[in-house]
Amino acid sequence: MAGSRIVSLGHYQPSRLVTNDDLAAIVDTNDEWIRDRVGIATRRVADTESVADMATSAAGKALAASGLTAADIDMVVVATCSAIDRCPNTAARVAHRLGIAAPAAMDVNTACSGFSYALATADHAIRAGSSRNAIVIGSEKLSDVTDWTDRSTCVLFGDAAGAAVLTATADGEEPGIGPVVWGSAPDRGDVLKIEGWRPYIYQEGQAVFRWATTALAPLALQACERAGVASTDIAAFVPHQANTRIIDGIVKRLNIPNAVIAKDIVESGNTSAASVPLALSKLVERREVPSGAPVLLFGFGGGLTYAGQVVRCP
Amino acid sequence: MTRDEIIAGLAEILEEVAGVNPDDVAEEKSFTDDLDVDSLSMVEVVVAAEEKFDVKIPDNEVQNLKTVGDAVSYIESNA
């Protein structure tokens, strides 16, 4: 059975840069505290751009770099938990603006783990023969669901989008997207939520930190195992960018001495479903990972949900 | 296990997780105010203590552990 692979990537961030000092002017916080607790130095915040605008920009770049055209794309999947519009969904908006005429178009909401869920969904569709070329996007405008008076959360988040173009692998070609390891802990979902109207992000930091630093490493190793890749051969690890101390805590429990560790959170903050494709796109753009090398993606967060897989670097 | 043995074990964990000088670790010391252990390091201390002392310390219990003595008492009665 044919698998799929990532052909190209693209990302978009709003132009407005918000520093820790900027936030210290509106809530009681400071640069040292933010850097020490979560590792963030700056984040980008959208002014007029919507989730669909950012998704379109990122997907447009990925499509332009893919060698394919809009006419080749038969599926668009957008991972987001912050789109305001319900219908048409974000995927349909993106498809229309990119001139993709009649794709299967759906949004997937599993919050911060969304990109890996969407990537797996598109990969499965290609494996099943229901799609040949797909665009998978993570796009979030978390500034819309951020309580800008809450110093414990407003320092954490940013707005961004990242996208990947997928294509079916040829017969006999190694699949470029490994089996997904996905799941959730719904009994503990309330420790990180965006609910009600008007919704704001709420989280119990200690509980989320504990779950992320203890439960996830074995699952990430399972993703390596299912892909048939030794953890020591992983060339890059791109986890959801929530907190540098969470990333360090997970890395400590993985045996990945040869991996570049993505830490885009320092400049971009936590961008939920956008964080993994954003960080991956930047690593590839900076040529920090060789083409064809195995990269471990692992998304986790709100819900609580998680998903990860090993992909071959485009 | 005696209280002193538990304190010695906690001191080892605190040194490894948060760089606390073992000589500073005593029953009356507050994790946050005296030993400068922040909320996330406290989680790491708790996770390491669970393993070392074979005890379960649930999330809602962590906030009650203000001092080293609180932690020693919890471990003593639940291990």
Automatic annotation (TrEMBL), chain A:
What the entry lists under Pfam families is as follows: ACP_syn_III, ACP_syn_III_C
Residues of the Beta-ketoacyl-[acyl-carrier-protein] synthase III C-terminal domain? 224-312
Main location per UniProt? cytoplasm
Coiled-coil region: none
Enzyme Commission code(s) on record: 2.3.1.180
Q: Which domain of life is it from?
A: Bacteria
Q: Which UniProt keywords apply?
A: Acyltransferase, Cytoplasm, Fatty acid biosynthesis, Fatty acid metabolism, Lipid biosynthesis, Lipid metabolism, Multifunctional enzyme, Transferase
What is the catalytic activity of this protein? malonyl-[ACP] + acetyl-CoA + H(+) = 3-oxobutanoyl-[ACP] + CO2 + CoA
Where are the annotated segments for ACP-binding? 241-245
In terms of Gene3D superfamilies, this protein maps to:
3.40.47.10
The chain positions of domain Beta-ketoacyl-[acyl-carrier-protein] synthase III N-terminal read 106-184
Active site location: 112, 240, 270
Where is this chain's protein located in or outside the cell?
Cytoplasm
InterPro entries reported for this sequence: ACP_syn_III_C, ACP_syn_III_N, FabH, Thiolase-like
Which PANTHER family does UniProt cross-reference here?
3-OXOACYL-[ACYL-CARRIER-PROTEIN] SYNTHASE 3 (PTHR34069), BETA-KETOACYL-[ACYL-CARRIER-PROTEIN] SYNTHASE III (PTHR34069:SF2)
Give the similarity note.
Belongs to the thiolase-like superfamily. FabH family.
What is said about the domains?
The last Arg residue of the ACP-binding site is essential for the weak association between ACP/AcpP and FabH.
Cited function: Catalyzes the condensation reaction of fatty acid synthesis by the addition to an acyl acceptor of two carbons from malonyl-ACP. Catalyzes the first condensation reaction which initiates fatty acid synthesis and may therefore play a role in governing the total rate of fatty acid production. Possesses both acetoacetyl-ACP synthase and acetyl transacylase activities. Its substrate specificity determines the biosynthesis of branched-chain and/or straight-chain of fatty acids.
Q: Give the record's subunit note.
A: Homodimer.
Protein name per its UniProtKB record: Beta-ketoacyl-[acyl-carrier-protein] synthase III
- Organism name: Phytohabitans aurantiacus
From TrEMBL, chain B:
Residue ranges occupied by any Carrier domain in the UniProt entry: 4-79
Q: Where in the cell is it found?
A: Cytoplasm
- How does it get modified post-translation? 4'-phosphopantetheine is transferred from CoA to a specific serine of apo-ACP by acpS. 4'-phosphopantetheine is transferred from CoA to a specific serine of apo-ACP by AcpS. This modification is essential for activity because fatty acids are bound in thioester linkage to the sulfhydryl of the prosthetic group.
Q: Which InterPro entries match?
A: ACP (IPR003231), ACP-like_sf (IPR036736), PP-bd_ACP (IPR009081)
UniProt entry keywords in alphabetical sequence: Cytoplasm, Fatty acid biosynthesis, Fatty acid metabolism, Lipid biosynthesis, Lipid metabolism, Phosphopantetheine, Phosphoprotein
Q: Which residues form the signal peptide?
A: none
Annotated TM spans: none
Instruction: Spell out the coiled coil positions from the record.
Output: none
Q: In which pathway does it act?
A: Lipid metabolism; fatty acid biosynthesis
Task: Give the modified residues of type O-(pantetheine 4'-phosphoryl)serine.
Answer: 39
Q: Which HAMAP family match?
A: Acyl_carrier
Q: Which family does it belong to?
A: Belongs to the acyl carrier protein (ACP) family.
Question: What function does the entry list?
Answer: Carrier of the growing fatty acid chain in fatty acid biosynthesis.
This protein's name = Acyl carrier protein
Species this protein is from: Phytohabitans aurantiacus
Gene field: acpP
